[in-house]
Amino acid sequence: MGYHQALLRPKSGKIHGEFLCHLLRHTEVNNHFAKLATGSTRFGLSLESIHKLPLFLPALEEQKRIAEILSAVDEQIESIRIGIQKYQKIEAGLTETLVDEPTLPFSDFVLIRPPLTNKPGNEEDAAFLPMECLSENGEITSFHHRKWSDIKQGFTRSIGWQRRG
């Protein structure tokens, strides 16, 4: 094995290999190792600190059942992660298509801070984009529809803010 590597092999009849993999990913085990890690630029663990890891192990058959359940959960999480990535790519592609080659300026379609004389009726929806809907890099994370009658009262009134006084 190379520098900063250790081969761990489960002892037959003592610990189930798949259970060991899940165990080594557990937060408590990682916290234990983090406390014992040494080094200033590249952290490492001594073999002694690995040997002294305190463990409570259930019976071997229970380890197998736990490992099967955790592996099934991991598969579901991975499947969901892949699905999310797929839909994020679809969303990015559609968004790129929408703004790829604009032919008309945005202001041709949307009234931005319209003067009161051009206001829509009181019950029409208007897009509302509060600052918390913008990410740090300026991406829109969500937006809201509000009634024009609420928006014209002012931002603080439309979210129920009351002046103290």
Automatic annotation (TrEMBL):
Coiled-coil blocks: none
Xref: InterPro entries: Restrct_endonuc_typeI_TRD, Restrct_endonuc_typeI_TRD_sf, Type-I_RS_S_subunit
Presence of the UniProt keyword Glycoprotein in the record: no
Keywords (A to Z) from UniProt: DNA-binding, Endonuclease, Hydrolase, Nuclease, Restriction system
Protein's recorded name: Restriction endonuclease subunit S
Pfam families: Methylase_S (PF01420)
Keyword Zinc included in the entry's annotation: no
Domain Type I restriction modification DNA specificity per the UniProt entry, residue ranges: 3-83
Family: Belongs to the type-I restriction system S methylase family.
PANTHER family: TYPE I RESTRICTION ENZYME MJAVIII SPECIFICITY SUBUNIT (PTHR30408:SF12), TYPE-1 RESTRICTION ENZYME ECOKI SPECIFICITY PROTEIN (PTHR30408)
Species, as recorded: Limnobacter humi
GO molecular function: endonuclease activity; hydrolase activity
EC nos: 3.1.21.-
